[in-house]
Amino acid sequence: MRFTRRIWINRFAAAGVALTALSGPAAAQTAVKFSLDFVLQGPQSPFFLAEERGYYKAEGVNVTAMDAGRGSGDTVGRVASGVYDLGFGDINSVIEFNAKNPGKEIFAVFMVYNKAPLSMLTLKKTGIKTPKDLAGHTAAAPAFDASYRMFKMFAKVNGFDPNTVTWSNVSPQLREPMLAKGEADAISGFSFTSIMALNTLGVKTDDIQLFLFSDYGMDLYANAVIASPALIKSNPKVVAGFVKGALRGWQDAIKDPKASVAALKKREGLINEDVELERLNYAIRDYVATDDVKKHGMGDVDDARLKKNIELVTEGLELPRVIPPNLAFDRQFLPPPDQRKVN
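Predicted structure:
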C-alpha cells in the first residue's frame, strides 16, 4: 500500500513520535513532558492557554504531558530525575535541591511569581493579630507545603520560637476545612489558594487574617519554569522555545484571564470557572504582574535580590552550602526584554 508523506506524518504524530527528522512546516516538533506544581487551578491555566493557541508548537515543542503536581519539592524531583523535562515549581525548592546535590543542579529558567505568595492564615476571631501571636497556637499544613517548610525562618525573622506552634501535617484537602471548623488556629499555604478555598467554605475574606511572608521580612521569589540539566544540554532550543511559548500564554492570560480559565476548563471540566478566575486574577495582580515586572518585563530576576533570597532559604532550611544565583537561575533562554513586557 502506498502512503503519502502527509499520512506518514499523521501516523507518527498519532503514535506520539517526536517529528524531529522532517522538513517543512510540520518539522522539528520535539516531545517534552511538563509537570505543574499542584492541582489544576486558575494560576496554572496560562500554560494550557499557550498550548491551546499553539504557542509551544510554533517554537517546535510538542508538550505531550502537562500534569498536576504534588508540591514544588516533588516537581523538582520529577525534573531532576528526568521523568519530566520541564516543570513549574518554587525556586526555593530548586535552591534546596541544588545546595544538597552539587554537580547535579537543575535550573529555573523563567520566573513567573516575582513575589512569593507564601503565607500564614488565621481567622480574626482567634485574636491572632501579629506573627508573634501565633506562638502557643496550633497550625495545619501538608508536609510538602512551601510556606510550612519556610515557617521556621518566618518565625525567626519575626522574633518568636517556631517550636511554640504545634503543627498537624494533613492532606491539602483537609487544610482549609480544619481552619474553618476551628480544628486548627492557623494554616500555611499560598495566599490565593487558601483564601479562595476558605471562601468556598463560607469564610469571608474580611474574616481572614493574612500574614504574607513578603510583608514580614522575607522578600522571596517563588514559582518559575524549571528545566532538567539533560534537556538544557541536549536541546537548549527546546528550553528557549517552551519559555517563549509559556511567556506568550501568560501575556495573553494577563490581558484576558477568562480565556485562560476557559482553556483550563477544557482540560479539567470539574473546576468552578468563577472561583478559578478570581484565583488567577489574584495571582496576576499580586504576584505576577508586579510593579517590578511592569517596569522590567516578565521572566527575569534581580541577582542581588536572588542572592538575599538564597541566603534566607539556606539559613531557614539549614542547607549545607550557599549557592550563587547562577546555580539557581539561568536567564539565557529568555526572549529579549522588549518581548517580555506585560500590561
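Summary: Residues 236-255 form the longest helix (20 residues).
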